[in-house]
Write a structure and sequence with these properties.
By secondary structure, this protein is an alpha+beta fold. The protein has a single domain, classed as Metallo-dependent phosphatases (Purple Acid Phosphatase, chain A, domain 2, 4-Layer Sandwich). The chain is 17% helix and 32% strand. The protein contains seven helices and 22 strands. The longest helix is centred in the C-terminal third of the chain and has 14 residues. The protein is globular, with a radius of gyration of 21 Å. The relative contact order is 0.13. The structure holds fe (ii) ion (2 copies).
Length: 429
C-alpha cells in the first residue's frame, strides 16, 4: 500500500522539540496506526545491520537538525554525537516502520535494487546546536562496525561559509559530480531535484544513496523537489516526502525555508501543480513574498537565496513562450534584492544576470546532457534582447559552489565533474 500524505503528516506532527543544556537529543518518530514505534536493545553481540539509506542531516531551525538513516530491520542503532567541546552523547533513535510496495530493479550487477517490504526510518532530533560549530555523528551498526560523518550547525550572520548545489543526479555520472562537490567541502549541501530517474537503467533510490553517502556525511542537506521525483509507485510520497520532509522552519510543505549564516534559503516547489497536487502550492507565491519581506525586516538576515527546480531564464528546450508569470516573479526578486536564484532541470549550465539578479541554471549533476542554447533563435524571436543576459553556458556535468564572505559578498564557482576544475566563476556584491 503506498504511503498516504496523512501518514507523512503524522510523522511530522510527532516531532517534539525540547530545550536543554549544550545539546538536546530527542528520538523523533510518529510511527502510524499500523506501524508504531519500537526500540530494541542493540547488544554488542548482534551482527552489523546494513543501512539501506546512509545517514543524512537536515536543518529544522537555527539551532536544530535531524539525523536520519534507513534500515530494513526494526533494530534501533545507537547514535553518538561528538560535541564541539570534545565530549559526546549517545542516544537511541526512534523508528518509523513502513511496508512499501515500491520496487525498482534492473537486475544489473552494479545497481542495487529498491526492494519492497519493511523500511525502517531511524531518526534523531538534535537541539540547541551551537551556531557555526562542527558536530560529529557515528551510527553503531553492531558487530563492531560503525558509519560516521560530520555537519556544521548554521553559523551566525556575519560568519563566512560555503554551500554547494547539485541537481539532476543520474548514475553513473553522479559519482563524479558528487566527488567534485565533496572535494569542495561545503558547509551546506543543496540538491536541486530530479534525484533519481526511472527512465535510466542505472538508477534506483538505493543506488542514489550509495553515490551520495560520502557527500551526505560531510554537511547538512537541503532538498528541492524535481519533476522526476514524481514517477511511478507513488514516488513523491514513498521516497521524497517520507525521507526528506519536513525540512526547515516554515512549515511542513514541499516548499520551505531555513536560515544559514544570515542567508535565508527559500526552496520553491515548481512541480506539484504539474503532477496533480495543486493544493500543495496554493498560496506558495504569497508565502515567497512574505519570506522575502521577513528576510528584509530581520537584522540577522542579509538576503534570501531562492532555490527551484524549473528554470526561469534559459535558452534550452525548457524556455517558455509565455513569460508573464516568470516576469512577475523576477520582479519580486528584484524588489527584494535577491542576489542569486538557483535552478536545475536543464542538464547543463547557464549563468544569467537579469536586472542585478544572478540566475544559475545547473542541472549538470549527471543526467544526460543537452544543448543549453538549443532554442536561442526561438527566444530571440519571442523576446528580442533576452538572450543577451545569458553570460555563460556550458554543456558539461558539474556542480556550483558559493562562498559567502563575512561581508556578504558571494564568490561563485562552477566546478567540473570529477576534476573539480573551475569552469566559470564570478562574484556578486
Ligand atoms: Fe532532470
Ligand atoms: Fe527536471
Amino acid at each position: 500500500m503506498p504511503l498516504s500524505r496523512r501518514r507523512f503528516l503524522h510523522l511530522s506532527a510527532a516531532l517534539s522539540l525540547t530545550a536543554g543544556a549544550s545539546l538536546s537529543l530527542t528520538a523523533c518518530s510518529g510511527g502510524s496506526a499500523d506501524s508504531g514505534t519500537q526500540t530494541q536493545d542493540t547488544g554488542a553481540d548482534l551482527p552489523a545491520l546494513a543501512l539501506s539509506k546512509a545517514p543524512w542531516v537536515q536543518l529544522l531551525g537555527p539551532t536544530s537538525a535531524r539525523l536520519r538513516f534507513e534500515t530494513r530491520e526494526a533494530r534501533a542503532l545507537p547514535v553518538t554525537i561528538a560535541l564541539p567541546d570534545g565530549s559526546s552523547l549517545t542516544a537511541t533513535p526512534a523508528l518509523r516502520e513502513d511496508e512499501l510496495d515500491y520496487a525498482w530493479d534492473f537486475e544489473l550487477e552494479d545497481v542495487p535494487p529498491d526492494e519492497p517490504g519493511l523500511h525502517v526510518l531511524q531518526e534523531l532530533l538534535l537541539e540547541d546546536l551551537q551556531p557555526g560549530a562542527q558536530y560529529g555523528w557515528s551510527v553503531d551498526l553492531g558487530g563492531g562496525e560503525q558509519v560516521s560523518g560530520t555537519f556544521r550547525a548554521p553559523p551566525a550572520a556575519g560568519e563566512a561559509f560555503r554551500f554547494g548545489w547539485l541537481a539532476d543526479t543520474m548514475r553513473p555520472t553522479v559519482t563524479e559530480t558528487a566527488a567534485a562537490l565533496r572535494s569542495a567541502a561545503p558547509d551546506l549541501l543543496l540538491h536541486g531535484g530530479d534525484m533519481v530517474y526511472q527512465t535510466s537503467p542505472a538508477d534506483t533510490w538505493t543506488g542514489f544513496w550509495q553515490a551520495m553517502a560520502t557527500l551526505f556525511a560531510g554537511s547538512a542537506l537541503g532538498v528541492t523537489l524535481g519533476n522526476h521525483d514524481f514517477e511511478d509507485m507513488d514516488e513523491v510520497h514513498v521516497m521524497f516526502e517520507r525521507l526528506f520532509m519536513p525540512q526547515g522552519d516554515s512549515g511542513a510543505n514541499r516548499y520551505n525555508a531555513f536560515s544559514f549564516g544570515g542567508v535565508r534559503f527559500v526552496h520553491i516547489d515548481t512541480e506539484s501543480d504539474r503532477f496533480g497536487f495543486p493544493e500543495e502550492v496554493e498560496g506558495m507565491w504569497d508565502w515567497v513574498r512574505a519570506e522575502l519581506q521577513a528576510t528584509a525586516d530581520d537584522p540577522n538576515l542579509r538576503f534570501a537565496i531562492v532555490l527551484m527546480h524549473r528554470p526561469m531564464f534559459t535558452l534550452s528546450k525548457y524556455w517558455v513562450s509565455d513569460a508573464t508569470e516568470r516576469d512577475a516573479r523576477h520582479a519580486m526578486f528584484v524588489e527584494f534584492g535577491v542576489p542569486l536564484v538557483f535552478c536545475g532541470h536543464v542538464h547543463a549550465y547557464e549563468h544569467w544576470e537579469v536586472e542585478g539578479v544572478h540566475y544559475i541554471v545547473d542541472g549538470g549533476g549527471g543526467a544526460l546532457s543537452y544543448d543549453p542554447v538549443e532554442e536561442k533563435d526561438a527566444v530571440d524571436e519571442a523576446r528580442p534582447g533576452e538572450s543577451d543576459q545569458q553570460i555563460a553556458h556550458s554543456r558539461t556535468y558539474g556542480v556550483t559552489v558559493v562562498d559567502v564572505g563575512e561581508d556578504g559578498r558571494l564568490a561563485v564557482q562552477r566546478l567540473a565533474a570529477g576534476t573539480a576544475a573551475v569552469e566559470d566563476s564570478f562574484t556578486v556584491g
